[in-house]
């Protein structure tokens, strides 16, 4: 049990998917102007990540590996991810039209989010079991949401600050992201033993 | 080779089927967002925004083809509420507030034809045949429908004067403050 | 002062607010002067919170001193009386004492110099009257809160009676620098003030009264203590001189230790605040039958030759007052009210109103304001705010047009006292941000209300049109049926005939 906890913490903080692995930067920069939309994006992406990871583990181990179709892995995963994103979009449109409107183009773009494809591939590479895969992806999704919300909170404050003209807007956001990334590197000093 | 083709085709078919079922299950009748926006609009269908009534305006605003500031009777209050709903940033200074012009009847020219009061979307004009008409200022939305209908040009849009009660302190013009 | 005393003083000093240099002397020590009747008076119809008065005189009509010239309309309003006898020469617009420089309605009166007053019945023993009767007399005299808010006093007394207020707090704080009209009232008319306090206590059924006077007015404290000596239910309480001690919530907290919650009125916790000048006006209204037609105005500032307090009729032009007090130099800025919360006047041709506590004429050196710099997040404004708000956060949000966020920080509780702007080392015009945002928010809520009203009207119109169609159809059907019946009857008759 405790190893899963360690896995959760290490994926959410130590190996944060956005700030340490630098995956999924597109929504991280794009939908982080407001905390509520960032939280919505984080939750939607988390949903896709966990569902896609579970489905791709099943496909990998029950379809691709037995038939020796390892070379179709990326294609299959993309197929699964695209389907899950479409599904999420339909659900959100029905359940939370406001959020659907707020996320705009970034919602279908979850399909091209590299963390969503990257995580299943890492899982296969590391040879994780099914439960480990779920925990690993859930932790990463948690880390993604956390990074999104913290970053959006800081950008909300940044919007009030007087930023030199050359840095105003996206440039200062990049500076902020890099500082956040530096801060998250501090977690690599965590010792679980 | 055959295994690859068959398995991927099968996978695609299954996922397509699942999505088809989901699309059926989560089908959105109309757009709930459009309905919500339409409920926020004044509903007078005055046409000042250039859309076909408030329903058309709500659709255009939800789709993003019309700005949230496009409703003059709604004014700043509606623009701010819509901006919050849609999550867009809003420059309030571009909004012309409270319909700066209201209809006014020149009593000496009005012939009491009753044409203007039939087109008023808010029943803001009172009058009867051969009686001088008058505009209830509180109810007028400044749509200007009546101006077009008046045969004697007795109805005109007059700017609303700023009063002490409505005056707003200007925002400090400072480049470096706060 | 010993160390222990210093420590005790420090304990007694509130931890909010600021302590600006009070500049009250020499104006406060100069004896009260009476303004000779000006050539023309412009009595505004809106001198109070609420609905403006409705004029009931005609141009050319002769009026007596104290005669009603505009009656109150609506629940919250106050009548307006002629400050002197004379002729109504015009009813029109004059520039309001307001930074916008917009006009408002007023009645111009040319005094005849006779000062003939209307005879009003004076109750022999007002304490034998019912409280409601006192309130009625106060309402008829047009008394409004003279501390600055100009809320109609009768409405306040009735509210006090209704909500069973136990303690009347009398505000002799006068924390604004320069102003000393309340100080002067307490020094010169202490007995009248105490009598007014007793009348107000009677009108609202309050058992005791606390008079809070800032400790920088020792003469007023002595005079008031002497006048209040026969009445044990009235206590004179010196309070530390700290701006904004004269704000009702701060005074209540200092005197009773109770804090008025943000969404409540003072009456909800059993207290009510009235100004000492208001008490004086109540005394004059009931004991002398004199409506509120004149008041004491402080004239001060670097451009004034003879600073001091002047008893002037309501409606006097500021320029008349300035001429009377004498000008050392052309004033660079004119203020109505104190330097912290007063309104900048567009020019000197504006009338004084019931709420005018002072006219400040500043010279060039006094109004030098350094340019606003960036916020350095020192937090001084947060410490100074008597309400405990975060002015820096609110201003930053307002600057980014994020008004709802500023509202979430408690913008509606801001009393615009100006402590934050005073203390700000970067000279950021914080209060202007807040007044702008408050105006903008109320404009938004007005337009929201208007939107709702439009919606209702449109719906009602649609219903009306629908109803008309149905009624028309019904009427047509009825006519048709009648015609058919007639035809049938005729046919039947024909048949019978044949």
The Rg value of chain B, from CA coordinates, equals 25 Å
Shape of chain B: elongated
Instruction: Give the overall pLDDT of chain B as a whole number.
Output: 81
Structural class of chain A: mainly alpha
The arrangement of helices and strands of chain A along the chain is HHHHHHHH
What would your notes on this structure say?
The complex is a heterotrimer of chains A (193), B (178) and C (498). Chain A is mostly helical. Chain A is built from eight helices and no strands. Chain A has a domain at 31-149. Chain A has helices at 2-14, 25-30, 35-67, 73-95, 97-103, 114-126, 130-158, 170-185. Helix content of chain A is 73%, strand content 0%. Chain A starts with a helix and ends in an 8-residue tail after the last helix. Chain B is mostly helical and 178 residues long. Among the domains of chain B are: 32-94, 3-methyladenine DNA Glycosylase II, Chain A, domain 3, CATH 1.10.15; 101-159, 2-Layer Sandwich (Alpha-Beta Plaits), CATH 3.30.70. In chain B, 37% of the residues lie in helices and 8% in strands. Chain B has six helices and four strands, in the order ααααβαββαβ. Chain B has helices at residues 2-25, 32-40, 53-63, 75-86, 115-119, 145-149, and strands at residues 101-105, 125-126, 134-135, 155-159. In chain B, the strands form two sheets. Chain B has a two-stranded antiparallel sheet. In chain B, strands 2-3 form a two-stranded antiparallel sheet. In chain B, β2 (125-126) and β3 (134-135) form a beta hairpin. Chain C is of the alpha/beta class. Chain C has two domains: 12-32 and 123-325, Rossmann fold (3-Layer(aba) Sandwich), CATH 3.40.50.11540; 372-498, Orthogonal Bundle (Fumarate Reductase Iron-sulfur Protein, Chain B, domain 2), CATH 1.10.1060. Chain C contains 14 helices and 17 strands. Chain C has helices at 3-12, 131-140, 153-162, 181-188, 190-204, 218-228, 248-256, 276-287, 318-325, 380-384, 391-399, 403-408, 419-423, 430-497; strands spanning 33-34, 41-44, 54-55, 62-63, 68-71, 80-81, 86-95, 103-111, 167-172, 208-214, 234-239, 271-275, 294-300, 308-313, 333-336, 343-344, 358-362. In chain C, the strands form four sheets. In chain C, strands 1-14-13-17-15-16 form a six-stranded mixed beta sheet, with helices on both faces. A four-stranded antiparallel beta sheet of chain C has the order 2-8-7-4, with no helix packed on it. In chain C, β10, α6 (218-228) and β11 (234-239) form a beta-alpha-beta unit. The model of chain C has no long low-confidence stretch (mean pLDDT 91). Chains in contact: A-B, A-C, B-C. Chain A binds chain C through residues 159-162, and chain C through 374, 396-397, 399-400, 402.
């Amino acid at each position: 049990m405790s190893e899963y906890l360690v896995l959760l913490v290490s994926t959410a903080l130590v190996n944060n998917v956005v700030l340490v692995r630098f995956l999924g930067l597109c929504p991280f920069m794009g939908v982080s102007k407001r905390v509520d939309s960032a939280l919505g994006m984080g939750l939607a992406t988390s949903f896709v990540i966990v569902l896609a990871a579970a489905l791709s583990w099943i496909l990998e181990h029950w379809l691709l590996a037995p038939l020796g179709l390892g070379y179709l892995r990326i294609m299959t995963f993309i197929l699964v991810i695209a389907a899950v994103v479409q599904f999420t979009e339909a659900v959100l449109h029905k359940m939370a039209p406001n959020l659907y409107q707020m996320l705009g183009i970034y919602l279908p773009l979850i399909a091209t989010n590299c963390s969503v494809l990257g995580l299943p591939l890492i899982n296969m590479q590391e040879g994780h079991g099914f439960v480990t895969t779920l925990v690993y992806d859930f932790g990463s999704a948690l880390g993604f949401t956390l990074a999104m919300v913290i970053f959006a909170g800081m950008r909300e404050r940044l919007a009030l600050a007087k930023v030199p003209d050359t840095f105003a807007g996206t440039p200062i956001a990049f500076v902020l992201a890099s500082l956040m990334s530096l801060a998250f590197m501090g977690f690599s000093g965590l010792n679980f033993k | 080779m055959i295994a690859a083709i068959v398995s991927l085709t099968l996978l695609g078919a299954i996922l397509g089927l699942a999505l088809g079922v989901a699309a059926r299950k989560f089908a959105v009748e109309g757009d709930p967002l459009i309905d919500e926006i339409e409920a926020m609009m004044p509903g007078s269908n005055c046409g000042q925004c250039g859309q076909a009534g408030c329903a058309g305006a709500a659709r255009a605003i939800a789709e993003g083809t019309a700005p949230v500031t496009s409703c003059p009777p709604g004014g700043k209050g509606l623009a701010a509420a819509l901006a919050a709903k849609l999550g867009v940033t809003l420059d309030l200074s571009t909004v012309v507030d409270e319909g700066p012009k209201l209809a006014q009847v020149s009593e000496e020219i009005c012939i009491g034809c009753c044409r203007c009061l039939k087109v008023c979307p808010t029943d803001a004009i009172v009058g009867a045949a051969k009686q001088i008409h008058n505009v209830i200022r509180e109810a007028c939305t400044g749509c200007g429908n009546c101006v077009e209908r008046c045969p004697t040009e007795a109805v005109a849009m007059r700017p609303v004067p700023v009063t002490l009660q409505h005056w707003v302190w200007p925002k400090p013009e400072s480049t470096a403050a706060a | 002062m010993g160390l222990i005393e210093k420590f005790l003083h420090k304990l007694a000093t509130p931890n909010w607010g600021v302590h600006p240099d009070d500049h009250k002397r020499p104006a406060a020590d100069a004896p009260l002067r009476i303004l000779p009747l000006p050539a023309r008076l412009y009595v505004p119809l809106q001198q109070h919170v609420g609905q403006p008065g409705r004029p009931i005189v005609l141009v050319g009509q002769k009026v007596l001193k104290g005669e009603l010239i505009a009656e109150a309309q609506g629940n919250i309003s106050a009548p307006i009386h002629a400050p002197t006898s004379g002729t109504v020469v015009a009813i029109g617009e004059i520039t309001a004492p307001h930074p916008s420089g917009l006009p408002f309605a007023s009645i111009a009166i040319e005094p005849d110099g006779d000062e003939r007053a209307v005879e009003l019945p004076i109750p022999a023993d007002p304490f034998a009257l019912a409280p409601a009767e006192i309130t009625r007399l106060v309402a008829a005299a047009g008394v409004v809160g003279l501390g600055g808010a100009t809320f109609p006093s009768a409405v306040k007394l009735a509210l006090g009676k209704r909500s069973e207020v136990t303690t009347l707090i009398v505000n002799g704080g006068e924390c604004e620098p320069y102003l000393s009209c309340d100080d002067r009232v307490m020094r010169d008319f202490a007995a009248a003030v105490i009598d007014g306090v007793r009348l107000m206590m009677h009108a609202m059924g309050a058992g005791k009264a606390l008079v809070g006077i800032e400790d920088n007015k020792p003469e007023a404290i002595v005079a008031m203590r002497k006048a209040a000596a026969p009445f044990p239910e009235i206590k004179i309480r010196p309070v530390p001189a700290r701006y904004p001690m004269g704000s009702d919530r701060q005074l209540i907290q200092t005197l009773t230790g109770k804090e008025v919650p943000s969404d409540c009125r003072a009456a909800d916790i059993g207290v009510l605040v009235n100004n000492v000048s208001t008490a004086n006006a109540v005394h004059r209204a009931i004991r002398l039958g004199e409506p509120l037609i004149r008041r004491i105005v402080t004239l001060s500032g670097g451009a004034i030759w003879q600073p001091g307090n002047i008893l002037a009729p309501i409606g006097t032009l500021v320029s008349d007052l300035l001429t009377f007090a004498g000008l050392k130099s052309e004033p660079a800025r004119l203020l109505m009210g104190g330097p912290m919360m007063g309104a900048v006047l567009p020019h000197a041709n504006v009338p004084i109103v019931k709420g005018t506590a002072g006219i400040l004429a500043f010279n060039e050196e006094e109004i030098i304001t350094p340019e606003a710099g960036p916020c350095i997040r020192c937090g001084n404004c947060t410490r100074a705010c008597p309400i405990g708000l975060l002015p820096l956060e609110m201003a930053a949000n307002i600057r980014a047009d994020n008004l709802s966020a500023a509202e979430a920080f408690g913008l509606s509780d801001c009393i615009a006292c100006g402590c934050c702007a005073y203390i700000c080392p970067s000279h950021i015009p914080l209060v202007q941000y807040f007044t702008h945002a408050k105006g903008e928010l109320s404009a938004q809520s007005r337009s929201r209300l208007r939107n709702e009203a439009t919606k209702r009207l449109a719906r009602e119109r649609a219903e009306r049109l629908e109803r008309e169609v149905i009624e028309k159809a019904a009427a047509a059907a009825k006519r048709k049926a009648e015609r058919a019946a007639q035809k049938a009857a005729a046919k039947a008759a024909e048949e019978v005939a044949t």
